[in-house]
Amino acid sequence: MRECKVAPPRTLNPRIPESLERVVMKALERDPDRRYQDAADMSRDLEAVMRESQPPPSPAALARLMENLYEPREREDAVAEESPAEPAPPPPAKEPPASPPPTESTGPSASMSIQKLLKRFGIK
Asked: Model pTM?
């Protein structure tokens, strides 16, 4: 049987977080029982690495996300339900957000987020 020694990623690039190195090394374990048993397990660990390496979204970013999620009519309805005695103000003009709103890193966009994470630490 062949032996393949895998260098831990941090020996090649010390900027790689230890948590990311743990995920990579677990994925490359020689013993199948010690590897990730399915992609969902690995995805959860990668998401945790991403959460710790990115600052939490600001209140302004969350507000932009909410504006993008809800149509102006839905926002008007929500305001009307909260204060029926007062007329709802007209919705603000919708401008594109300065930066993309935070997203859940699952599904088709997850690979892009992982690519951004790898790029951030100088991994191609």
From this structure: 0.47
Separation in Å, CA 120 to CA 13, 25, 53, 62, 124: 12, 19, 10, 23, 9
Which pair of tokens denotes residue 35?
């590897």
Nearest C-alpha neighbor of 104 from the set 60, 63, 57: 57
How far, in Å, CA of 85 to CA of 109, rounded? 43
Residue carrying structure tokens 């630490």 = 121
What does DSSP assign to residue 10? H
Amino acid letter at 100?
A: P
Cα 58 to Cα 63: distance, rounded to the nearest angstrom: 9
The alpha carbon of 106 is separated from its chain's Cα centroid by a whole number of angstroms, namely 8
What 3-state class would DSSP assign to 70? coil
- How far apart CA 45 and CA 38 sit, in angstroms, is 12
Question: What are the tens digits of pLDDT across the range 46-85?
Answer: 999 988 877 777 888 888 878 877 777 766 666 666 655 5
Backbone angles phi, psi at 56, to 5 degrees: -65, 155
